[in-house]
């Protein structure tokens, strides 16, 4: 990979492969251009609420096109995410919540709606503030505690070591790592339900 920032690679695909399909969920899809521009707009809403490099977003959403946009927006804003499925027990509200103190001394949480109204066709890329060693996602253990911190450079290395097929399954694993490996390769990510229904 020419860079270790996940979102920088996807931005390059948006510029070079714009109309190529990035994600498919049943009869819905997003091109690389749409994915990138929607995430740009959502990242700006996060930044407007005080999100910054080193902040953590707790994302409680179903696996969907909207989840992919949200996770990419978090990375573009300079932060990291932890993904909680809506079926999991816990006190986090549905949607996205921010933990603004990355040092853990004070957890000031704020629920933020970053969905916006419709596609953001004119949203330009944000400046890259991410370093390769910055954490992209936090994978929790069975008790909900942070267990594995995965930096951008680790995900970039995974992408460099594997070549996903043109259509690759996006499995519902906690870090969404296979989503990034697929998108960084310029392939199309298929949601699990789509693959299973296609095989039936």
Would you kindly provide a written description of the structure presented here, covering whatever features stand out?
The chain has a single domain (6-192), classed as ANL, N-terminal domain (Rossmann fold, 3-Layer(aba) Sandwich). The termini are far apart. The strands form 3 sheets. A 4-stranded mixed beta sheet has the order 2-1-10-9. A 4-stranded mixed beta sheet has the order 4-3-5-6, covered by helices on one side. Strands 7-8 form a two-stranded antiparallel ribbon. Helix 1 (6-17) crosses helix 2 and helix 4 (152-161) crosses helix 5 (177-184). The protein is built from 6 helices and 10 strands. By secondary structure, it is α/β, with parallel strands linked by helices. The chain has helices spanning 6-17, 32-48, 65-76, 152-161, 177-184, 192-199; strands spanning 21-25, 28-31, 56-60, 80-84, 95-99, 109-112, 135-140, 146-151, 167-170, 188-191. The chain is globular, with a radius of gyration of 16 Å. Mean pLDDT is 83; it is low at 194-200.
Summary tags:
single chain, globular, 200 residues, 4-stranded mixed sheet
Brief overview, please?
The chain has 6 helices and 10 strands, in the order H-E-E-H-E-H-E-E-E-E-E-H-E-H-E-H. The protein is an alpha/beta fold and 200 residues long.
- C-alpha termini separation: 36 Å
- The top level CATH class name: Alpha Beta
Counted by DSSP, the helix tally is: 6
Tell me which CATH architecture applies here: 3-Layer(aba) Sandwich
Q: Major sheet: order of its strands?
A: 2-1-10-9
Mean pLDDT: 83
Low-confidence stretches: 194-200
Secondary-structure element pattern, one letter each: HEEHEHEEEEEHEHEH
